Amino acid sequence: MVTFDSLRREDRPPARGWRWMFRRLRLYLPTGLYVRSLLIIIIPMLLLQSVVAALFMERHWQMVTQRLSAAVTRDIAAVIQIIETYPQDTDYSEVARIARDQLGLQISIEPDGDLPPPRTKPFFSILDGILSDEISDQVKRPFWIDTLGDSNLVEIRIKLEDKILRVLARRNSTYASNTHIFIVWMVGASLVLIGISILFLRGQIRPILALANAAESFGKGQKADNFHPRGADEVRRAGLAFILMRERIERQMEQRTAMLTGVSHDLRTILTRFKLQLALAGDNPDLHGLNDDVNDMQSMLEAYMAFARSEVEEDVGEMKLSDLFAKLETDFELHEGKTLKYSIEGEDGIAVRPNAFTRLVTNLASNARRYASTLDVNAKHSAKWLTITFDDDGPGIPEKNREDVFKPFFRLDEARNLDASGTGLGLAIARDIARSHGGNVTLGDSPLGGLRAIVRLPA
Q1: Tell me: the pLDDT tens digits for 325-360?
Q2: Model confidence pLDDT, tens digit, residues 360-403
Q3: Which residues pair with 109 in a beta bridge?
C-alpha cells in the first residue's frame, strides 16, 4: 500500500544524508571565533602543502632519484665492459683508477663466490626499488645491494663469470638525498605564516571579545565605562552602535526615574494633605474608609516607584547566599507553623546588586510564607549560572495565569494572590530585578504540591 509518507520518503533527496553528516561534524568542531578563524587559515594551508608535497615526492623526487641511479648504473656497466674487454690488466688497477678519478666509484675485484643473501628491504625505500630496477635493466647480471645504514656510501656487488665486482658509490650520486631541505623550508615557512596569522587574529578578535564582554556586562546591569571601539571598521561600527544604544537606554531610564521622582513628590504632597485633613477631622467613623483608601494609595505609590526604579542605580557588590537564607529562615521561625529549609551547591559568594537581589529573594520567600507552610530553597552556583529554586506546598498558581502574574497590577483572585497588599507588583518587580541582572524568573509545579519559582542569573 502506497501512502503519502512512503512517497515522501522515496522523494527525499539523497543530500539529506550529507546534511546529517555535516550536522554531526559540527558538534565536534570548535565554536570560538578565534579557533575557527585559525582553522580557516591552517586547514587550506595544510591541504595545499600536502598536495604540493605529494606531487613533489611523486614526480620530482622519484624522477631525480631515477636519473641519478640510472647514471651510476651506466657507469658500472661501462666498468664491467672495460673489465671484460681488456682482461690483460690482471690486478685491474687502471680500471680502479679510472673509475675513481673519472666516475667517482670505488671498485674492487674479489674472487669468485656467492653473493650475500638478499637483505630485507625497508617498508618505504625509493632507492632500493629504483636502483634494483636500473641494474636489472642495464647490467642484467646477478647483484646484491646495500643501501641501509647511515653511511654516505652505497655498496653494490655484481657477479661476473669468474669473479665478483664490488662497487662503492656515493649515496648522493644515486639518490636525491637533499629532499628534506624542501620539506624543512616548507614546514618552516608554514610555521612562520601560522605564527603571523595567530598574532594578527588575536589583534582582530580582541576588540570583538571586548564588545561581547561590554554587552554582557551591560545586560547584567554592570557598568562598562572602560569600553572603547577598536579593531577593523566593521567592529568599530558595531562598538559605536553599542555605545549609542547604551547611552539611549541609560538616558531613557534616567528620564523615567526623574519623571517618576517628580510625580512621587507631587503625589506624596497631596497624600500628606489628605492625611492632615483626616487627622484634623477627628475620629469619625464615616472617614474610616477614606483613611484606608489613602493608605492603599500610599502603598501603591511606593510599590510602583520600586517597580519603576528597580534599583537601577545600585552598584554591583559581593554578598553571601548563606547570610541571606539564614535571615529568611529566622523570619520564618517567627511565624508559627512556617518552615524554611535551604541548601547551597557551589560557591557561597555571588556578585550582584545586593539590595535588589535581596528584595528579589525576599519577595518570593515572603509570598511562599504567606500562602504555604513549608518552603524549600535550593541554590546551585556553577561556573556560568546561579539557579535558585523555591518549592512550597501552597495552593499554587494555575498554569494559564503563570505569565499574567508577571504583568504590573495584575490581580489573581483564584487559588492565591501573591500581592496581598493590593499593588499587584510583587512578581513584576521580581522578574524586573532578575532581568536587570541578565536572568529571569519562571514558575512551575513544585514536587511539594504547590508553586515552584526558579530564579536563574548568570554567574
Answers
A1: 999 999 898 888 899 999 999 999 998 888 888 888
A2: 898 899 888 888 899 999 999 998 899 999 999 988 888 888 88
A3: 165
Q: Name 342's bridge partners.
A: 377
Cα(339)–Cα(369) distance, integer angstroms = 8
Amino acid at 319: M
Q: Tell me the residue length of the chain.
A: 459
Alpha-carbon distance of 153 to 98, in angstroms, equals: 19
Instruction: List all residues 6 or more positions away from 392 whose beta carbon is below 8 Å from its beta carbon.
Output: 368, 371, 372, 374, 375, 376, 446, 448, 450, 451
446: left (phi over 0), alpha (psi -120 to 50) or beta: beta
Q: What are the residues whose beta carbons fall under 8 Å from the beta carbon of 198, sequence distance 6 or more? A: 38
Helix/strand/coil (H, E, C) string of the chain? CCCHHHHHHHCCCCHHHHHHHHHHHHCCCCCCHHHHHHHHHHHHHHHHHHHHHHHHHHHHHHHHHHHHHHHHHHHHHHHHHHHHHCCCCCCCHHHHHHHHHHCCEEEEEEECCCCCCCCCCCCCCHHHHHHHHHHHHHCCCCEEEECCCCCCEEEEEEECCCEEEEEEEEHHHHCCCCHHHHHHHHHHHHHHHHHHHHHHHHHHHHHHHHHHHHHHHHHCCCCCCCCCCCCCHHHHHHHHHHHHHHHHHHHHHHHHHHHHHHHHHHHHHHHHHHHHHHHHCCCCHHHHHHHHHHHHHHHHHHHHHHHHHCCCCCCCEEEEHHHHHHHHHHHHHCCCCCEEEEEEEECCEEEECHHHHHHHHHHHHHHHHHHCCEEEEEEEECCCEEEEEEEECCCCCCHHHCCHHHCCCCCCCCCCCCCCCCCCCHHHHHHHHHHHCCCEEEEEECCCCCEEEEEEEEC
Grid cell digits, residue 57: 615526492
- Per-residue model confidence (pLDDT) at position 287: 74
Q: How far is CA 439 from the centre of its chain?
A: 22
Handedness of CA 31, 35, 36, 39 (dihedral sign): negative
Q: Regarding beta strands 374-381 and 339-346, do their DSSP bridges make them parallel or antiparallel, or are they unpaired?
A: parallel
Q: How confident is the model at residue 188 (pLDDT cuts 50, 70, 90)?
A: confident
417 Ramachandran zone, left/alpha/beta (phi>0; psi -120 to 50): beta
> Cα(68)–Cα(90) distance, rounded to whole angstroms?
31
* Cα first-last separation, the chain: 57
**Any bridge partners for residue 349, and if so which?**
320
Q: Which residues are marked as active site? A: 265
Instruction: List, in sequence order, every residue forming a beta bridge with 385; answer none if it has no partner.
Output: 458
